[in-house]
Amino acid sequence: MFLKNLIQNIDDTVSIDATIQNAVNLMSKNKLHHILIVDNKKAIGILTEKDIVNLYKNNINFHNLAVDYAKKELITLHSTRLAQYALTIMIDNNIRKIIVVNSDDEYLGCIEQEDIVYHFEKEIHSTDTSIEQLLNSSNTAIIIDENENLQYTLDTMDEHGITSLLISHKDKVVGIISESDVVRLAQQRTNRNIAIKIFMHSPIITIEASKNVSDMIDIMKNHNIRRVVVQTKSSNRYHILNSKDLTNNLKGNYAKFLELKLFDTRNTFNALSESIIELIDIDNEQVIYWTNSITKENFNINIDDVITNIIPKELWDSLLKKLLNDKVIFETIHIQKKYFQLKGSYGTLLNNKIIKLFLYDITKITNINNQLQKQNELQQKLLFEQQKMVQMGEMIGNIAHQWRQPLSTISVAASGMKVQKDFHTLSDDDFDTMTSTIITNVDYLSRTIDTFKNFLKEKKELKELILEQRIENTLIIVDTSLKNNYIELINNIDYEKQTPMTMFLGELDQVIINIINNAKDALVENNISSPWIEINLLIENNKAIITIEDNAGGIPHNILDKIFEEYFTTKHASNGTGLGLYMSHKIIKESFDGKLYAINSTHGAKFFIELPLKK
């Protein structure tokens, strides 16, 4: 049955400017157990009998506004929700009333526990549960003497958190007083020093513990009461049973009902630091029916809100799809300007589809990680630039080496022309030959400076280039430096082949130069006779493999696995930074998704650069 079918047409609302006295008057007139404060047709607060008892007990001025003392955190359900769903909400949130609203959140009515109990009456009848099964310490009656005054009665009810008391005369129970009675007394501003025996109900309505729950419901309905008194003959103890005890028993045994829950008890959840949200899947929308305390602090949500009030619909649709498929999900999500680690679980409870979400706030950790990542990226950029500066110094040396011979040739040609001119022996043929020599060498100087300039000024941008051409340009840069050290470069690259690759400008060049410069230094330091460096390119299995080998004797085995570590170097501090091979390894791995490693061959060190090619 829908909740809209359980709503009773009663006057139970006051306006926002109503006083406490106005509320109490209406409660007494219509025999209500609550009053709703309504503004623009929407419920904004509720006062219950218990609230009135506390206000009366504490001598609060009843001319004050009712809204100032009303409970504002209301649990509302749409009128199209089922009674069974409302029962779950009542039990899970330990409440006795459900506020029902329409699609515009306008107040329609309030459903009491008794309404739910009577709705499930047939189910209760079918269980034939005995009243004795409902008796426990929580509903054991508190008894006071009839000569105690009203103030003492109010204090006792407040101290024990109960809604009714039994009254005794000479140790014999003779009457009962409830919150409803106190509301009537509060309305009349009754003197709280008067003995309670003046106000109690007597005789009390009792039922034997051996009777069934169905008998108890019949008595409550016939006498229009909310509670009955049970006396156990075996212990001579009294219990007061009300609609709450019946509600807890609707599914038979309340302990078993709780065991059907997907996770732990609500008290445990409230102690956790992570947000927990329980959803029920109703009519293709996922509705919140319980949250723990921290969730209410972190998110502006209410019971019966849809989950998309917290998680954007597009993201939620994606999460729900995974939940339906996998039943359990673990995701990191970004919502409401925060990062959360989300654990979700999907299951069933009392034929309802239930979703439980755990949201752990990882915003601080994520922000710290992001900051560290940015700092690391900056550090890597600085390391890259530092290595670039080291190479720039080496490049300037190479430029000097490569310019020395052409400049000498130009100088000789120009001087020869001048001498021949002075002695009038400069023929046209000699003039043409010498000027041609000068122009050729100037052109060589120009191309050389362009090559170095392009290497030093290339921006880090992706381009599709020809691998063989990049290697050729790189070898031009180191050629003169190797010749000046009498090192033979064995170049086995087939430049007629054209292997296209998408790469960052300058990065592969930097790696090859680093490896060749290290080989050159090793050959010079070890005073190798007939030194050589050999470079090869092999294309196989959809990858390019560049090998660079020398005959310097190899790398000591105890450091072979350390050569790519940051700041590791075997050179003197004035000659090495320990960044060359580290940056080379990082470039090949991160920019090319490739591999850079080294072995010792029969001649010396052999480096392998493996670069995956596009399929």
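(the above was protein one; protein two follows)
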Amino acid sequence: MITLSINNTRIQVPEGTSILKAAELIGVKIPTLCFLENYEAKGACRVCLVEVKGIKNPVTSCSMPVAEGMEVFTHSQAVRKSRKFVVELLLSEHDGDCKTCLRNDDCELKALAMELGIDRVHFEGERALKLIDDSTPALIRDSGKCIKCRRCITVCNEVQSVGSLYPQGRGFQSSIGPAFAHMLNSVTCVQCGQCAAVCPVGAIVERDHIEDVWRALDNPDKFVIVQTAPAIRAALGECFDYEPGTLVTGKMVTALRQLGFKKVFDTNFAADLTILEEGTELLHRLKKTLVEKKEAFLPQFTSCSPGWINYMEFNFPEYLNHISTCKSPQQMFGALAKTFYAEKIGVLPENITVVSVMPCTAKKYEAQRPEMFQNGIQDVDYVLTTRELGRMIKQAGIDFRSLPDGEMDTPMGISSGAADIFANSGGVMEAAIRTVYEIVTGRELPTENLHVKPLMGLEGIKKASLKIEGTKPDWSFLEGVELHVGVVHSLGNARELMEAIQNGEQFHFVEVMTCPGGCIGGGGQPRYTNDEVRLKRIEAIYREDEGKSLRKSHQNEAILKLYAEYLKEPLGEMSHRLLHTHYREKEQLGF
């Protein structure tokens, strides 16, 4: 333990602790713009400067470790002057018009300038080159707003292992972006939006679909329905100053009705459907390999996360046959809305507009994939992030906190608790195990409160095994089989797991989520998301699951009725036509 003083307060911290983290322990906030929790400090922004007795110039607190007897001052005159100088320099180069910037209400640079009492910028001069990159369906980059904090570089390379963003050039001419000033659509960007989630300003944002949705709602010829992903209910409240992890499901439903949507449905309905389709697919693959002794492309990977699909198409195309052929719940819902539901209400598919509210920017890309059209009709028309829905509710003047709780419409708003936990890393796997185990054995999963504890939490790679015993006669080939499953979140961890599989590690089923913590940490969720926030959202989702009487996908009566009246059976002809797809290798740009 190291003893030091911060602002004349003595404190003991473990050796190797940074001054920044030590200050947090005594309730002293040191501002930062480049720091990211759990990753090596870069000291790039120079905003976290502090004074250390005996050292001539202020030092960066994020990268300076504590030392025995160190005396630190976090707001001395020298520190205040240095911070203001640094922030004024950033503002002088920043091409930001706060009046119209998408980030004007949560811009970290603007907030910091206000905290430091900066009322004007003393430096006039050339601004950074402004380049707008709107080449992808999900993200828009504005280089003129970039403050070169390098957070996006850290998350793209160290967290996601994608490698689409790099620093280039030196000095004033330096820039952040794809190599050789290429656009995002010409590199291996998976459009996960984690760069937008950590950007402190408006240099990378999601492509805004709010005006498109308003136009659809204003069109009397359109029957506009909305689906909401499970992660939204545990995060939307943050847009209205609720604590992270506050469940606002009922208020969200009421707000969506007041916005003008004809029906408010739940992506969870399609998540339950996904479990029946994907679980049946897994059982068929197991039968093929164990009984027929044929290649069944195991392990089977989940297909709910579009960023993960993009990543595989770029990096591991030889494993594309291992990905479940199931569309994601978002796309399954859209396909059914414009077939099954359209027939049910007597509206032409082309007159139905499906809007999704998702925690994920890559869902915007997924909705536009050519595989996601049926007879020229797009499954999902527009995708709003959680942040966009928050802005839309505010645009409508709705007092969210005073809203009464509403309920989802039927039949595509009925869902199980198993569908709720799709939002969390490990949730899809747990939901699948609940159903597959009971189908095969006729018994409920023998775990505490139906949870599979080894698959829960924020560990990057999680593994579990389950021995199948006492099977029904139809599934006797699985008697005694040790089912090996893996769960991974964030693409850097996914790469590590894929390399382990290439080297011979055996799994039957693997869940992959693109974003840290799963969908609750998606690129479209309210900022700023760290592990503390992720854990609060995860806990809220488990509360939602545990508070339901229906907690298994195969017991959802609305899903069973859908099969009886329309789809007939999992993996049947109609299911294959509407709910399944295949993916293709993507070329990487060669430099």
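Reviewer note on protein two: The chain has a mean pLDDT of 95.
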